[in-house]
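Record type: ASSEMBLY
Status: queued
Input:
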Amino acid sequence: MPYDPSAFPPFAVTVDLVVLTVRRDALCALVVRRGEQPYQGRWALPGGFVRADEDLTAAAARELAEETGLCVHDRHSPAPGSSPTGAHLEQLATYGDPKRDPRMRVVSVAHLALAPDLPAPRAGGDANQARWAPVGLLLGKEADAHGEDQSGQLAFDHTQILADGVERARSKIEYSSLATAFCPPEFTVGELRRVYEAVWGVALDPRNFHRKVTGTPGFLVPTGGTTTRQGGRPAQLFRAGGATLLNPPMLRPEV
Amino acid sequence: MPYDPSAFPPFAVTVDLVVLTVRRDALCALVVRRGEQPYQGRWALPGGFVRADEDLTAAAARELAEETGLCVHDRHSPAPGSSPTGAHLEQLATYGDPKRDPRMRVVSVAHLALAPDLPAPRAGGDANQARWAPVGLLLGKEADAHGEDQSGQLAFDHTQILADGVERARSKIEYSSLATAFCPPEFTVGELRRVYEAVWGVALDPRNFHRKVTGTPGFLVPTGGTTTRQGGRPAQLFRAGGATLLNPPMLRPEV
DNA sequence: GCAAAAGTGTTTTTGCTACACCCATGC
DNA sequence: GCATGGGTGTAGCAAAAACACTTTTGC
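Status: finished
Output:
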């Protein structure tokens, strides 16, 4: 049977981004205000159409750069002249409910990006508003208690996508060195611990945490420098080591 | 800016299936012989186009039923009148390299299915050949040593998709009860252990394994029956319990 | 009896928790 | 001095590894 272009229906393919960071000890996600219908005025995840000759990962990296100025940073071979701050980027999942976009059939390949704390989100090419919002508010775990300005749910199925992305990040920092993607290039053990505490929403024992991360070979590499930016006794500075898998994993306390 | 259909390029969207089972103590994947160009005559993963009004998961379930006769089995609310053997189905990842299909731009949403040992694959609607092949051969870990009839690599990027699916299965049985999806409705602890050994390719201590799985609350439920189908002393029969998460996880030995 | 697989008991070792305690800075 | 966060030592406990041993079938 020869190739027949009428044998399959055409789809629009987009990428949506769950961009997470830790700001003021809270896990935050990047959201943009929609300027057009549908869901005009509602907050949504950043994203856009995949171009005709563009790989999915490339489309996600392009959208990430457009929205945040971040360049994707391959943690194994950091490009020497790359942007000041790198980010982790990975595919999350694909959402293709026939009714998820009222205009047409859109399949969205969601990606998860983890970034260090950034100065402030810059407006996208469309001059959309953009901001960091605590995921606790966006996911409505405690929204009722505050009477917030969140304009309710995110657009489309983005609340579900965000929840899936947050869950991925929460579980993946257990057994990988991914939490270092939330930190600046050099960081202290205490700063890394506060990342875990913000992402998991729990308190960890500083002493045991220190022993665990410094005792795992290849996880952290001391740079030799120290800092007192957190106050108290000077703390050693570290870079992320080559090890990407944590074995045994970091244990997330029961909630 | 109003909606402009010319603003985005059209894509074809397909689902591809990594269907795994354990046969004769080996992890096997379902492959079909391609009857048309490109890659005519090569083995490939089963799959097909997503229909215009079909959810991605529904498309994967339809393809799975067409190729194997398996119905997807929701392990939490098994349909009373459903097919004799159920299967686990979940989304794996999405593959969208612009050059992955020479004919046109195709984005494939790969799914992972786990099934108990089946009699024999039946031919698909297109009367294609279908067979179970050990993943060790398909992934070429030891292909050279045998001079096999595998006709080399799988079509398209299916070798990569298969590798990703196998890796997902290997890691997910560590911390979930997914391994029971490879077993018949009633099974012994020894049969479950042989599933782990086949998927991981390692030998496990039968005594410690027994203690571990029977000691995890909610994982296994004794049915009261026994069997000697494996020889030796009669073994208790179990069904999969309600627990889907294993905590603490099953530990995969170092290789 | 013998082989084979199921199942239990016991010791060793590993790694996490909890908490006492000391260190080095800013103020 | 005192507060703050950084870092080490150690006892107790939970669970995994390793392995001896008994049980119940088929032949």
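Annotation: Residues 73 and 86 of chain B are 4 Å apart (CA to CA).
Annotation: The mean pLDDT of chain B is 87.
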